[in-house]
Amino acid sequence: FIDRWSPRAFLDEPIPEHHIQTLFEAARWAPSCFNEQPWLFLYATEPEQRKIFTSLLVNKNQRWAASAPLLMFVVARRKFIKGGTENRHAEFDAGAAWMSLALQARKLGLYAHAMAGFHLQKSYEVLGVPEEDYEVIAAVAVGRLGDPSQLPEDLLQMELPKDRKGLKEVASDKIPFVE
After folding, report:
1. DSSP letter (8 states) at residue 171
2. In the prediction, which pLDDT does 14 show?
3. Which of 49, 59, 58, 67 minimizes the C-alpha distance to 126?
4. Pairing state of beta strands 70-77 and 111-115?
5. pTM of the prediction?
6. d(CA 32, CA 35)
7. Considering only CA atoms, which of 58, 68, 64 is closest in space to residue 12?
């Protein structure tokens, strides 16, 4: 777990197809409410597809993510298949699937970097995702760690694993909202 971080420097070398399938297999086994597995990973590996996916990112992310050999978008189905009611846990469940994928990436010697910086409305249009049925949650870049010195200076300064909050800041045996 502690070896996982989100670099921006990626080698533009293809990821073997069996590794890509292993990433999605890891995501497939994530837990979900009623075992609905509401996530869907839309991905691109071919240069032309990657250009399309890259165009959906904000400019700052385009500058580094374009070199990642695997780009994807994580979407979550808004309603339960059984019953058709709102699944308010879909994004939580998709987050579990993403984390499974990210940890599997490290096991394969890869890195995964999730991004909130993308053009949401454009992603629905370009990817053909029906907005009434799915929520586009995040973009993700995956690849082998590249040479950080190849990044622009402003991104190079950010290219370090981040420290984490202390345990007392993220877990409590007291209800902090009640006085």
Report:
1. -
2. 97
3. 49
4. unpaired
5. 0.93
6. 5
7. 68
